[in-house]
């Protein structure tokens, strides 16, 4: 029962028919941070279209795919020891809904900007902010945030390594050396390590308290590489399922958006994702639909991806189903606790296919000038608003945020929390109010 415990020690009334994870699910669905995901960028800029994914719709899809993975695992492992340790549907949906709560305005661009702003105050990282929101900032308990179950928080702890141990001082955020007229942050140098924030160390200690000393030590293990931030080696079983669902959604659904909006074409796709990378999926199509694809399955597959919306949607659905059906559960040596010992993985061929899709999206869409211009602009606005607030907090912070700032002993983390919680539109409105001569009114609500 220790995995059902909450930090507040709150227990459900006897007449409450819900499971503990049903309660977690309800708390997330009704939270402010979950609603704000509808106003945060996934990959493509909000406002250009209302068709493609934002952080909220992406999170809904991740939760659905993660639930499908769990149900597939249940079917495939009915007589295996792991069956009893598979998460309830409501728990895995909680992890899907919450996995991106900590991402600030403008996605990873905003994350880099806030890490630069917090360079002397403990840094910033989106996954670490997710844990902070759920354990501290949400308003559903006295001082424990959303006060979720211990198992839910274990699943949310994607990188079990604190910022102070993950951060390599060689990679300290800084300004770019080249420009002489404008001051620009070094975007590569300012990328944060994947970690949790040191401010949540007591929360992580509580999450991991049921583990044996050996399991806890192994779970904290990290990998180091010269000139790079350290990386966590492990994640929990539940987190591995959610993470796999996130990869599938990113590799397939964000790819679908890019096609639908005309950001990529067939020639670019064929050059980056050839028939060798697609081999496992092509074999599946040949076996499953022998009369639909003819002799050249690869060309037919690509034609369907770039055909009308109905044909493309059927093909995308087949891709997602194929990847879900090719996930497996493996055991990792060195752990006694089942929630750490078991891991969700993709089979080798489908994993190669998914990686090719993800790499294509990263190189052809995320790194394209169309997206990078907007990411850069977002970073600039985040830094400008942060530094303005930090210069005179009493003059610029909204009264409720300033009260928290004062109560904290003037901790810059409060300013960071305030900006990280903004939607893209709210951040832009704040920037315009501060810097655009003809924008803003004394009657605007801050």
Describe it for me?
- There is one protein chain.
- The protein has 446 residues and is mainly alpha-helical.
- It has 3 domains: 2-240, Orthogonal Bundle (Hypothetical protein af1432), CATH 1.10.3210.10; 244-369, no CATH class; 370-435, no CATH class.
- The chain has helices at 20-29, 32-36, 55-76, 89-98, 107-117, 126-137, 150-156, 163-166, 201-207, 213-219, 237-260, 266-272, 279-288, 297-305, 309-325, 338-341, 348-366, 369-391, 393-396, 399-407, 412-420, 424-435; strands spanning 222-223, 231-232, 327-331, 342-346.
- A hairpin with a 7-residue loop joins strand 1 and strand 2 (231-232).
- Helix 5 (107-117) runs parallel beside helix 18 (369-391), helix 11 crosses helix 17 (348-366) and helix 20 (399-407) packs antiparallel against helix 21 (412-420).
- The longest helix is centred in the middle third of the chain and has 24 residues, at 237-260.
- The protein is globular and about 70 Å long.
- 43% of the residues are buried.
